[in-house]
Design goal:
Belongs to the ABC transporter superfamily. The protein is α/β, with parallel strands linked by helices. Helix content is 31%, strand content 22%. The protein binds adenosine-5'-triphosphate (ATP). Adenosine-5'-triphosphate binds next to strand 2 and helix 1.
Length: 378
């Protein structure tokens, strides 16, 4: 079911410039919820605060901590919830006036579990296809194709109530794809999945775009998985745009190189020996904050190409084994707390540790509650 990229322009002034191709445009978009029952919400909640962003075709990650406004934005984009101020266009259509036509061309995978337990995946997805306007035969054919695509073909006649979390997420994805949309909005599709399930879901998301040309907006609070999956990342916090950039801009290389060496009989603490020798050779080292001998990583400021030669020659001169020498990269976490994250980039051995300070876990393994605020503590 190859589908050409949408290539639509939004009527909003900014997007009508020649060559500007977008699937989503928002301009000064705000959403305020009126008074809540909660004491803290007495003045109402501003879920989106003058959000202005353009999203091009491709796979785009929408990142923000819990309560950042991701789901609210998706509901506005689908025409399900009116904005308080500003405007938004999806595939060139105004969300305020074209909710129905937008939902005909856009698939939506909600965050919450919304599946009926007593029907099979086939029955449910056929029903959703029919609701989207497909005739009966086409709905059945598309359902079979889509369930095969998401890896549920063998299980398609079993009641959904007996499915695992991963299978249920796939059913939600299938119903979002069944009507051949040009854009899908996926709200936390990896929620509740184990690492293998996450990888499979992320692989499916990439294939949705690569094989079928469908653009994807996917939300997550896991920085690492969006770094791996998306072409472009939009970061929001408290309903405001923090940054919108190509993923490669977020993760460009730094001038820091991490070096790990082995210990030897002559140098039982190889790291300290190398640190001393490099300092004597005038190589700039970052303070790693660890006691000498407790860290196996040295973080080196690369002044120019000769720094690599100096490190190599010093390691060889000491008779140490070079375990690794790797260029450090910036991480999306730096958008939230630039100084802390940068310092941490120097400290951490594994890039997937990135979310610890931000409260936004970089990787599934880090999705445990954090001390003093947990996942909400951006
Ligand atoms: N119907 C509502 N009534 C009142 N407040 C709401 C409503 N929906 C959302 N909010 C509030 O708006 C803010 C943004 O919520 P939203 O669900 O969009 O965030 P989110 O980024 O999707 O978070 P999560 O990752 O937890 O799903 C939150 O403070 C939330 O409590």
């Amino acid at each position: 079911m190859p589908i050409p990229p949408s290539g639509l322009t939004c009527p909003a002034d900014r997007a009508t410039t020649v060559g500007c191709v977008t699937v989503i445009v928002t301009e000064g978009l705000s959403k305020r919820f009126p008074l809540g029952t909660d004491r803290a919400q007495r003045g109402g909640v501003t879920a989106l605060d003058r959000l202005t962003v353009d999203i091009a075709p491709g796979v785009t990650g929408l990142i923000g901590s819990n309560g950042a406004g991701k789901s609210t934005l998706i509901k506005i984009l689908l025409g399900l919830s009116p904005a308080s101020e500003g405007r938004a266009c999806v595939l060139g259509m105004d969300v305020a006036t074209a909710g129905g036509p937008i939902r005909e061309r856009v698939g939506y995978m909600p965050e919450h579990d919304c599946l009926p337990p007593d029907v099979s995946a086939t029955e449910f997805v056929v029903h959703m296809a029919r609701m989207s306007g497909l005739p009966p035969t086409a709905a059945r054919e598309r359902t079979a194709d889509t369930l095969r695509h998401v890896g549920l073909y063998e299980e398609r006649y079993r009641p959904i109530g007996g499915y695992s979390t991963g299978m249920r997420q796939r059913v939600k994805l299938a119903q979002a794809l069944v009507h051949d949309p040009r854009l899908v909005l996926l709200d936390e599709p990896t929620n509740g999945l184990d690492p293998a399930g996450r990888d499979e879901m992320l692989g499916l998301i990439r294939r949705i775009h690569r094989e079928f040309g469908i653009s994807v907006l996917v939300t997550s609070h896991l920085l690492g998985e969006l770094e791996r999956t998306c072409d472009h990342v939009v970061v929001i916090d408290g309903g405001r745009l923090l940054r919108s950039s190509a993923t490669s801009d977020f993760t460009r290389t730094t001038t820091t190189v991490a070096v790990e060496v082995t210990d030897t009989d002559r140098h039982p603490d190889g790291t300290t020996a190398l640190r001393t020798a490099l300092t004597a050779a005038g190589v700039g080292l970052r303070t790693d904050g660890a006691e000498p001998g407790t860290s196996h990583l040295l973080l080196i400021d690369v002044a120019d190409d000769s720094t690599y030669d100096t490190v190599r020659d010093t390691v060889a001169g000491l008779g140490l084994g070079l375990v690794r020498m790797e260029q450090r990269r910036h991480r999306i976490a730096e958008v939230f707390h630039p100084r802390e994250a940068e310092a941490e980039a120097g400290l951490q051995a594994k890039p997937q540790d990135a979310g610890l300070r931000t409260g936004l876990p970089a990787d599934p393994q880090d999705e445990r509650p954090q001390k003093g605020g947990g996942r909400d503590a951006v």
